[in-house]
Write a structure and sequence with these properties.
Shape: globular
Largest sheet: 7 strands, antiparallel
Distance between the termini: 116 Å
Number of strands: 11
Radius of gyration: 39 Å
Number of helices: 3
Structural class: alpha+beta
CATH topology of one domain: Protein Transport Mog1p, Chain A
Helix content: 10-25%
Strand content: 25-35%
Oligomer: single chain
Strand order of the largest sheet: 4-5-6-10-9-8-7
Length: about 230
Amino acid sequence: MPANPPMPGAVRALPLTVTCLLAALLAACGSEPAPPGSTGESPTVPTPDATGEPTQPATSPDVLEAPSQDLAPTRALEVTVEGHTELREAALFESPQGYAMYVLPQMTMTPEEPCCDIAWARADDEFTLRIERLDPDQDLAVLRENMALALSAVGEAEELPRDQIWAPQFRDAELAMRAQSEAASRYMLVAQIDGARYRATLHLPHREALEGIAPTMWAMLDSLRTTGPRPPV
């Protein structure tokens, strides 16, 4: 018998260096290296719209605005008096109500707080044109009642025929009414211009100046443009 027989169950130990190498190889087989710059999460890709551009939050304005800086300081307006049409130079008026209009020399125009502007004839200040920017959600039936009441100060309110609206952009007015008496005529129109709602009131005394001033007012009214949002009231 050998002098020193091995002990039962004894196992020959592996060198420490070999053990460490095996552990490292097993760990490497269990995972793949991540691509450079990868965080392990799927990146968020913007969803393209029909044009192929990434979808953005809607920011479209409610009205089609023409910035006042894009409007010339003066402009020639067509004025028709007794069947004769001529060009007259008008100056730009910029309203705090978010619109602009060209004013002819026969008229003066100023803001009228808190919601309106008023123009009057230099020769006779009882000839007036009043512009009011309205709430676009205001009920038309209520507006009609209010207009009929305002017109009753002159006479009985009636519908204004469209062919007697001498400002072309107002011929599609939502409301068009008038009242007449021996002393004066009054016209009231509610119309959408560039997506914004306005009410125009023309007060025309039956006097000699009427022939020249009324066409002047209609020409000015046809030059109205929306330039910004309606201010809070």
